[in-house]
Amino acid sequence: MKIGILICAYNEEKHIKSVVNQSLKYCKDVIVVNDGSRDNTLKEIKKTKAKIINLEKNKGKGAALKAGFSYGFKNKYDYFILLDGDGQHSPSEIPKFVKELSKGYDIVIGSRKKRHSGMPYIRRASNFSSSLLISAKLGKRIKDTQSGYRAINLNLLKGIKLKRKKYDLESEILLKMIRKGAKVKEIRIKTIYGDELSKINPIKDAYRLFRVLAMDSK
Predict the structure, then answer these.
(1) Could you give the 3-state DSSP secondary structure of residue 139?
(2) pTM value?
(3) Which domain, by its residues, includes 189?
(4) DSSP 3-state of 69
């Protein structure tokens, strides 16, 4: 079982080095996609032992993930564990995902505690509504569809055509993989909220989600 850690980073010079180095404690293969950062993110990544995919221009989370997936397919990884580069996810929880993957799950979602967690209200509201809509679409209850901390089976993903390029790609992946028979497991994770700014635009990304839900997911 060949597992890699995939981190997409955009203007994360403050956190990315620490996130990568902590991740390397639990997995020797850490791949970072620098999504056209305008700060010193790339410089900080180069101080680590991570494998680097550098996008010259900012293309969005979905495009960055696709670049990482292409690398994974080419280098024959079986699974990727995805986490954000802003320090909100604790790499110490990587073994939890590996444990569930070893049981045969194709998607493992890190489900965040919303209430009394410090999660900003706008994020709680967006997450609740998105998870409700996607669960209704699938006919399967998923508590945290917007969590960026997740593990996926690349062998199953490889045969799926992905169209989205922004944050909505994460929802598209869930919809299409589950419809293809993916086994899903949610596990509880901690989320650290600090002074980082969310890169999600509530209006634009809500519209993109509705497009994903409305599209033919075959």
Answers:
(1) coil
(2) 0.81
(3) 3-214
(4) helix
Phi (first) and psi of residue 10, to 5 degrees: -135, 115
The CATH number linked to 82 is 3.90.550.10
Residue 5, amino acid: I
For 48-105, how does the pLDDT look when each residue is reduced to its tens digit (9 = 90+)? 999 999 999 999 999 999 999 999 999 999 999 999 999 999 999 999 999 999 999 9
Mean pLDDT for all residues in the chain:
84
Instruction: Count how many domains the chain has.
Output: 1
Angle at CA 57, nearest 5°, toward 171 and 8?
Answer: 45
Q: What is the DSSP string of 64-132?
A: HHHHHHHHHHHTT-SEEEEEESSS-B-GGGHHHHHHHHTTT-SEEEEEEP-TTTT--HHHHHHHHHHHH
Residue 43: Cβ within 10 Å count: 13
**How would DSSP label each residue in 77-92?**
-SEEEEEESSS-B-GG
